[in-house]
Amino acid sequence: MKTILRGMLITAAISILPGLSTAQEWKPTKPVTIVVPVAPGSSNDMIARIMAERMTSTLGQPVLVENRPGAAGMLGAAQVVRSEPDGHTLLIAPSNIYIVPHFPAIGTSVKLNPLKDLTPVINAGTSPLLIVAHPSINVKTPRELITYLRNNAPVSYATSGAGSPMHIAGEMLQRSTGIKMTHIPYKGVMPGVNAVLSAEVPIGFTALAGAAPFIAAGKLVPIALIEKQRSYLLPMVPTLTESGIAGVEVSTYFQILAPGRTPAPIIQRFNKEMNTVLITPDVKEKLRNSGVQLMGGSSADAAKLARETYAKYGAVVKDLKIVGE
In this structure, are 154 and 205 located in the same domain? Predict the structure, then answer.
């Protein structure tokens, strides 16, 4: 009797999900909005717009993109957290959202727990992180960079924002070399890249996805990757580690998430649609040419990576005694 009653309750719960019947997949009943918590032109923005274009036809409803930068990405994240968990509002965000909560001084008016308040849908992709320089400073190698930093300390460096992996890499480099630097946080990858392009700051810690076209045009000089190993997207650029500068290894990725408590059938439908988009040949080529390595996989994969990132960078921030600006 208890088994029968449990089955009836599960069936009833499924039947009241918006747009879902037991005979078909969940479908949105109104436009879907993907919130991008950084400025336009970033990897997150690019992926969001590709997803929006492709899913509009498969979901049967318009999929819109809304940029909401601020508070190191937490402003847009908070907007999604406050939304109804009904599948009509999503977030695409860099791994910053699992790092920034460890910085009490950043976005003090925005309080959320990303592991509880958001539900990962998919790991969309990753982009190699590197140090770039304006050509005018005549720095081309990691060793030349260290010499420049030492002779001109404290040198200002741009990042996509306080609490980003790039910010942490800057702190790691200062600890590793003992050279003081000045962190200049911007509201996203592209504003930081533009600051180096205009020589507002001489160097930047950034993602290849934002810097790739400017590196190709000779307007930015790629100095070194700040990751564990070289990337096939930029095979000729060494890592700091292999150049003898130890202790500077970070990474980033882009995740698509829904508000916490979003029902599993909705998460599963979006995960299916997004995996389909990511394996489309023209999408793969476009993103690769833009410096993005595709990921994909299950929502469980995304949730596991989220937990690992939150724990890893919580320990790093504590160890380095980093504070937010």
Answer: yes
